[in-house]
Amino acid sequence: MRIVIKETKADTGKWTADYIIDKIKAFAPTPEKPFVMGLPTGSSPMPVYEEWIRRYKAGEISFKNVVTFNMDEYVNLPEDHSESYHSFMYTNLFDHIDIPAENINILNGNAADLEKVCKDYEAKIKQYGGIELFLGGIGPDGHIAFNEPGSSLTSKTRVKTLSYDTILANSRFFNDDMSKVPTQALTVGVGTVMGAREVVIIITGFNKARAVREVIEGGISHMWTVSMLQLHEHAVISLDEPATMELQVESVKYFKDIEEISQSKMPIH
Ligand code: GLP
Question: What's the rounded Cα separation, in Å, for the pair 102 and 182?
Fold first, then answer.
C-alpha cells in the first residue's frame, strides 16, 4: 500500500488529480480500449474533480475515451433530486468535461428490480474487462462506497441498509434532517473495488483520522471495510496532514521517508 501525505486538502486533491491524469495519459485510451474508472461522490473527491475540470478546460486532458462507474446511489431518491449521486456527478464533474453520456454508468436506485440493476452493473464492468482504476473516499467509520461496518469483504454490487452513523453524517446534505436521508442505497461491494487493477483512496480531514489509523496500522477487519485494501496489489492512499493525526508519529515519518526516497533521484548518504 502506497501512502502519500500532503499538507492540505487542496494539496492532496491536486496530487490525486495529477496522478490519475498521468495514468489516463499513459494508458492512451481509444474508443476500442477506453480507460475504465470507478468514481465516488462526497466532499473528499471535490478538489480532484475541480482540478480535472480545470485541466480539461486548459486543453490538457480529454475524457472522451474514459468510461466511468459510480460507486453508489441512494434508493428511492429521484435522480433529479439535488442530493442524488446522479445530480452530484453531473453538477460537479460530467457537465464540465467531454465524457460522452453513454460512457457514464450510475446505479439506478429507483428501478423496480434493484437486484437486477446490481447484477447488470457487475456484468457491465466485466464486459469492459474490469476497472482500471477505482477512485474512492471513505466514511468516518472506514466504510468504502456504502459498505458499512460488518459488510462482507468479498461483496459485490448490492442493496445495503445505511448505518445510523452514515445517515447522521449525510444529514448535512439534507438540511440536517436525518428523517430526509434515504435509509438504503445501491453500492458496489468491497470485492468490486478489490477487482480493480488499481485503487486510489483520498482521505482528508481530522474526522477521518481514526479510520485512517485502523486502516493503515490495524488489521484487516469487516468493521473498517476499507482495510481490505491491505490485500490489494496496487492500492494508494492519499492523505492530508489532519487525516494522519491518529497515526503514530513513527508511521507518518516512515511513509513520508519512503515517498521522498522513491521520488528522489539522489542517492542517500
Ligand atoms: C458516503 C459515500 C462514500 C463517501 C463518504 C464520505 O457515505 N457513500 O462513498 O466516501 O460518504 O463522504 P465525504 O467525502 O463527504 O466525507
Answer: 27
Catalytic residue numbers, as ranges: 72, 141, 143, 148
Q: In this structure, are strands 104-105 and 184-187 parallel, antiparallel, or unpaired?
A: unpaired
Residue among 12, 44, 148 to mutate when testing ligand 1 (max atoms within 8 A of CB): 44
Find all residues with CB under 8 Å of 18, minimum gap 6, and list them. Answer: 51
Give tens-digit pLDDT for 54-71: 999 999 999 999 999 999
Tell whether pTM > 0.90.
yes
Give me the amino acid identity at 145.
A
Lookup: cell for 78: 429521484
Provide the pairing of β-strand 72-74 with 184-187.
antiparallel
Neighbours of 231 (CB within 10 A): 11
Separation CA 52–CA 17 (nearest Å): 6
Ligand 1 centroid to residue 79 C-alpha, Å: 18
Distance (Å, rounded) from C-alpha 214 to C-alpha 112? 38
- Nearest ligand 1 atom to alpha carbon 138: 10
How does pLDDT run across 198-252, given as a tens digit for each residue? Answer: 999 999 999 999 999 999 999 999 999 999 999 999 999 999 999 999 999 999 9
13 CB contacts (<8 Å, ≥6 apart)?
A: 45, 46, 47, 48, 50, 51, 202, 204
Distance CA 118, CA 152 (A): 16
Pocket-forming residues, ligand 1, beta carbon under 6 Å: 40-44, 71-72, 137-139, 145-146, 166
**Closest residue (by CA) to atom 2 of ligand 1?**
145
